[in-house]
Amino acid sequence: MPIAISDSDDPRIEAYRAVRERDLVGREHRFVAEGEVVLRVLARQSRFAPESLLLAENRVDSLRDILANLPSDVPVYTANRAVMDAIVGFPIHRGILAVVRRAPLPPVEELLARLPERALVVGLVGLANHDNVGGIFRNAAAFGADAVLLDSETCDPLYRKAIRVSVGGALVVPFTRAPSADAMVQALVEAKFDVIALSPSGKETLARLERSPRAALLLGAEGPGLPADLLARTRTVSIPMSGGFDSLNVATTSGIALHHLAGTK
Amino acid sequence: MPIAISDSDDPRIEAYRAVRERDLVGREHRFVAEGEVVLRVLARQSRFAPESLLLAENRVDSLRDILANLPSDVPVYTANRAVMDAIVGFPIHRGILAVVRRAPLPPVEELLARLPERALVVGLVGLANHDNVGGIFRNAAAFGADAVLLDSETCDPLYRKAIRVSVGGALVVPFTRAPSADAMVQALVEAKFDVIALSPSGKETLARLERSPRAALLLGAEGPGLPADLLARTRTVSIPMSGGFDSLNVATTSGIALHHLAGTK
């Protein structure tokens, strides 16, 4: 049964207060997911379980099927728009929020050890843009990547906007963080992954690349790209482009490369 | 020689006033481009020529090379940040704007008739999102597409944000508008293009598709996709995805498909 909240100071909805400000400082143990598409992924196929939901009253009816399947100990709070906006701190057009507990991040070695003999992993180095990280998780989910590894400079995939751009992919694809890009590559090599670094200066061409059973795709930020010492230790691959316009968005690049790697033997 | 503007009401910079409001109603004869990356494309390889520039004083030095190569009848106005913000109507962080004259849009048949025997065209149907249209133009430029065709529902690629997301690609790849998606397909068929419609229900798989010398890639909006009557008249192609997560961004989809089509004989 939904619990109606009429006072924006109600202590039961403490976790939903000042969403943006808390997003900015980062949340250590929880994250916030928003919108119907993301909530459906959260309920159906996510690695995470919600602690509670906060819904605008007028959204409850369209979510009956999700609510019916929630564990009974997950409180569903409802509020009218004015109260919800006052809680959250800005007009929350989608009217659908969930507070979700984070899972501990396993060491890279442990995550890799769990993967099957044939596996596809994505490694992100220095990706500080939430749209790009979200877009990459969307593609990783679409092409069935087994895991995503993040270096210490890559931003949080469980940031609200990254989850939204990922269309829930950030809740589905297992990920963890490596202490550094070097440590990430070392762990991949030790786990017998063929490490493929995408770079405009790559020696092989993506379209001709035959993948190994265990393949890891490394992506760096647009502009700086992957560090030179990392390129020197990996198999470098480029996507040939038209003269004078050598520029792809990194999320698009991930889609092109994952499509190729997921489809080749 | 740059012309210093000290009064935001100066009639010479009339075209830069209230940029956002004018973007919203649309500009019939001109458009506004912003930022250094876009200005470099505009100066070097664009199909369009600027009528004038408006630069923040502190940006002039880093653009000397561009300014030196501008035709001498293109006025370059400069202003301090406060005056520039007052002209434009919001804080214009990039400090670089150009007003550019549009070119007339040729009939689709005329644009297609100009293309070489081997040609790659992108057709957009019902794409109302500027980020997606900008992203598609970026990919079209990166993979050397010869032209983009827009149906009447697809938004303006020369909208400020679409140009920015395209990293200038919207200024490079020739485009025009068809009266309808039907008319677009008919013109493509008459010009001997193999019309490839991307759809989750497509009968062929992209990775196995062999392209014809003249290939046209049709893309519809995420969600509705391409209309059924159009799919019935074209070669339909899908991108296989992982179970339960059948979702790619349409700009990413264009990148995957153009990479395949540009690379195959």
Automatic annotation (TrEMBL), chains A, B:
Q: Which organism is it from?
A: Microvirga terricola
Concerning CDD domains, the annotation shows:
SpoU-like_rRNA-MTase
Keyword set includes Transferase: yes
Q: Which UniProt keywords apply?
A: Methyltransferase, Transferase
Q: Where is the tRNA/rRNA methyltransferase SpoU type domain?
A: 120-259
| Pfam families reported for this sequence | SpoU_methylase
Instruction: Supply one GO molecular-function term.
Output: methyltransferase activity
Any one Gene Ontology biological process term? methylation
- Keyword Methyltransferase found: yes
Tell me the classification of the organism that encodes this protein.
Bacteria, Pseudomonadati, Pseudomonadota, Alphaproteobacteria, Hyphomicrobiales
Name used for this protein in its record: RNA methyltransferase
- Entry's InterPro entries? Alpha/beta_knot_MTases (IPR029028), Ribosomal_eL30-like_sf (IPR029064), rRNA_Methyltransferase (IPR051259), SpoU_MeTrfase (IPR001537), tRNA_m1G_MTases_N (IPR029026)
